[in-house]
């Protein structure tokens, strides 16, 4: 069996600790505005290194200085503890 999906109450509690994130269907998202394009790319590189270390990878949309991170455990079909853990890691990098 793979990573279990978070229940509704578990997800509510997890999102309460992730105020910069919002739910979007079977995913959570956060948008970050970097000071410059190169600063945004530097943030993406740091997030990529952390994601690789966790073996859990976000979808990342880069629009000039605006970065949008989307997390979902595709193999589980929704949100798991892997997503909320990586969201906390991303918060530590971008905040």
Explained architecture:
By secondary structure, the protein is of the alpha+beta class. It has one domain: Transcriptional coactivator/pterin dehydratase (Gyrase A, domain 2), CATH 3.30.1360. The protein has helices at residues 8-16, 37-54, 81-94; strands at 22-24, 27-33, 59-63, 66-71. Strands 1-2-4-3 form a 4-stranded antiparallel β-sheet, with helices on one face. The chain is globular.
User: Regions with pLDDT < 50 over 5+ consecutive residues?
Assistant: none
The sequence of SSEs as H and E is HEEHEEH
Q: How much strand content do the residues show?
A: 15-25%
Q: Which geometry do the CA atoms define?
A: globular
Number of separate helices: 3
Distance between the termini: 35 Å
Please name the fourth-level CATH homologous superfamily: Transcriptional coactivator/pterin dehydratase
Rg is: 13 Å
**What summary fits the major beta sheet?**
4 strands, antiparallel
Number of domains: 1
* Proportion in helices: 40-55%
In round numbers, the mean pLDDT is 96
Write the CATH architecture name: 2-Layer Sandwich
CATH C-level category: Alpha Beta
Biggest sheet: strands side by side, in what order? 1-2-4-3
Structural class: alpha+beta
How many strand units? Answer: 4
CATH topology name, in short, is: Gyrase A, domain 2
InterPro entries: PCD_sf, Pterin_deHydtase
Family: Belongs to the pterin-4-alpha-carbinolamine dehydratase family.
Keywords: Lyase
GO molecular function, one term: 4-alpha-hydroxytetrahydrobiopterin dehydratase activity
